[in-house]
Amino acid sequence: MDDSQKKHNISLYVENKPGVTIRIALVFARRGYNLESFVGSPAQDPRYSRINIEATGDSKTLHLMLEQLNRLVDVIHAREYTDEDVIQKELALIKVRCDNESRTEILQISSAFKCRNVDISDTTMTFQVTGRSTKIDAVRKMLDKFGVLEVVRTGKVLIARGEEETSW
Amino acid sequence: MNKKQCTAAAKLIEILKNQGVECIFGLPGGSAIPIFDALAQSDMKLVLTRHEQGATHMADGYARSSGKVGVALVTSGPGATNTLTGIMTAMMDSVPLVVLCGQQLTTNLGLDTFQEADVSGMSYPIVKHSFLVKDPEELPSIINQAFHIAGTGRPGPVIVDLPKDVTSAYIDEDTSGEFSLPGYSIRKEGDPKAIKEAADMISSAEKPILLIGHGAVISGASREVKAIVEKMQIPVCNTLLGKGCFPESHDLNLGMPGMHGTAYANMALCESDLIISVGSRWDDRIAGSPSDFLPQAKKIHIDIDPVEINKTVKVDCAIIGDAKSVLDSLYGYLEKGNTQRWVKLIRRLKREYPLKYKKEGKLRAQHVIEEMSRLTKGEAIVTTDVGQHQMWAAQFFKTEHSRHFLSSGGAGTMGFGFPAAIGAQLANPGKTVVAVVGDGGFQMTLPELSTAVNEKLPIKILLINNNYLGMVRQWQHMFYDNRLSGVDLVGNPDFIKLASAYGCKGFRVKRSADVRKVLNAALEYNDGPCIIDAEVEKYDNVFPMVPSGAGLDKMLLSMPRKKLEKPKGGT
Lengths: 168, 571
Ligand SMILES: Cc1ncc(C[n+]2csc(CCOP(=O)(O)OP(=O)(O)O)c2C)c(N)n1
Hints:
The structure holds two protein chains of two kinds. Chain A is elongated, with a radius of gyration of 19 Å. Chain A is about 30% helix and about 40% strand. Chain A has four helices and nine strands; from the N terminus they run E-H-E-E-H-E-E-H-E-E-H-E-E. Chain B is α/β, with parallel strands linked by helices. Helix content of chain B is about 35%, strand content about 15%. The interface between A and B is medium-sized, with 20 and 19 residues.
């Protein structure tokens, strides 16, 4: 694959301080690196936050940016997890157009993917899907022909397996 | 329990004193009044500047010349935005500054209230770190953090935004100033394995060369550099900001390489088989086009900042650590090689391609600068502005000690030189301070003449007056068919009259024959600043020159006959 189109998963452990998000985002923006998703939430210890970033671009630039992220005073650690065996999940809400005719087929597809039906109306159904991002892409693709009205995704989060601590 | 209380502003001044701050450069305004009020009740020295940009450059010159953290104090909104150029300048050159900015009341933030500006938001990309103090109790800890971050590791500027209600609030006098910074660590010592590897590379190199940068100056590595040079007989070149770390009068010193470097430094680099960079970041003024920078030479890179490793130039061996400590350990591993033939070649290059300029005809900037260098014998602290005179100063002012040549390198900020000299003179009252400035850049911060006069600082302002924005005129001459655009400084003031309006002494020199006499008179005048208005040849160009973006082998020693292509580099 073209290295400039490579998707990278980055996990950061940061001090929970104002401005930390902007400082991180600026590292990417300055090199014109596009962020696909950016998820942040308080860590186990509330003085810190965990941030998961998915970004597209070449590996050399990413390497430089990781060093620049680690240089930030409020960043305890920034690490790439792209090709590693870690647990990765994402959640999506997908709203699809449906009528009496298509309803059964849509429900079949959704149950095959273990989606949860979270809302239903005369003309629409909304599903919650969790799993790897590729799975969400697949569900979405299957539902496309019925008319996908909206997709809201959380962005990818990841955690290390077993005793290993994430991003440390 | 009734603890003794004080305002957070008073506590701030107390902490500054504990941090060893001797003077603050600044200019007040509404949101900073509580801090200035606390200053008035302390014995801290305040240097009132005429513009906030001046305050930051003064703090910068103070810091570069002394190694201490420089402090500027300004008000919110426009006061703070006026510091941004100075902050960026310090950031690019790794200079430790703490910039204290007054700010609107915390309850007014984000509401476009009078003189409220999002100073943090505007400055993120140009600071090492920044703080907004919202709780007065946190102020002592934050100020200590600011100094720690600014002054350690790779130094840099730190902004502290101080809302007026925070600085006015009362806090316990013994409020703790402790802090922990779990995300901030500094690697001082290099990895022994990498050091050993570097030592082997150096010991076996036939044509090694040292490239000394600002990092070596900052870490105080003069002795260690010298020890290695003398043991190994390795020639040395220094970047603009590395000048003085290794004496430029030394037989093995080649001066500055790069765009306007000496011919022999550039030729030596092109011939070398190993370049050892100590605290230099392969800036594009030296590397030209970093992706194909001298492929024949292996490269060792010693730097405290991991970001710099392989950032532009790919290196063969990297050591992350403080230059002084790394060189100290490196020394122990080095085995004397044989560089005799190499040193002979270096001596020959120095002999055959000396820096030169026309001595006949109109007065030359190089002549004035070279004479000033001779008269001050390497003992003066020299600051420069940005432009042709800066490059001539780099070429002709021979620097013998670290922290004696202060110039805006990374940013190339016009207006830097004169205020930086004010800071340097305040930090070094016993030293001769010379500010080499151009007639363009000097006018960007010249109101600070009041500041220098008030403080009775005997700065020698050596004004290289060519009536042009000379460096830009040179580019237009060389690469744009001499279509001069926006470079003629018509309407320049009479600088001697201007000096006298400020109560400042003025000297004028127009003829080569008068240079020594006038400079001597200026050096003997110590009652305050003086301007030496040197009216020099208007159309002189700086040579050697490597067009930007080109390799060092494309160096021009003089103006070529044939038309030149536009340079490929950015600036
Ligand atoms: C603040 C700022 N504006 C513009 C420039 C672009 N610039 C670089 S050198 C130069 C000319 C400087 O002229 P002068 O101060 O007269 O010095 P000279 O080159 O003539 O020695 C200019 C305009 C700059 N470096 N900094």
